[in-house]
Amino acid sequence: MGSIDFNGICLCKMQASLFENYSDFCHYSPHIFVMRFMNSKLAERFDDMLILGEVSSNETFVEEINEQYGQSSFGNPHSVSPEVLYWTGYIYRYWCYKYNISSKLLIQAVHPKMLFNRYVVFHSMDPDYAINRIIEEEGICFPIKKTLEELLEENLNEAIKGYQNK
Would you put residue 98 in left (φ > 0), alpha (ψ -120 to 50) or beta? Predict the structure, then answer.
């Protein structure tokens, strides 16, 4: 588990703003938007922090998602309030950044409705506390990603064992 730093906060705010304002640029349900975003190539750039080097707007982000998945008009784009969407976007990115989890993996375990329904209780809490409560309540468990150093150490140890057995 990492710590949240300036770059992490910037990513959280960018994603939160995108979620909050997506309906200005397309007309489908927030559930569909969140699912599309979290599985998109755009989300991968958020995961890798590459998005910080881009000059883009919420409109171009939504256009990119629509290019990847196609246009839709399914559902009411205003069925979830902008405040709930902002918090949801912020929490998803905070969770990905702090716990080093990809957006695709996170969305498999934490459905948008799960966060939408928890907004009233958790929106004023520290994100770490809210995430830990959700993990506890839902019994969520993710595989732990190994760092590059840990992978290199394991491979080096295996190579040494193989060399010693010769």
Answer: alpha
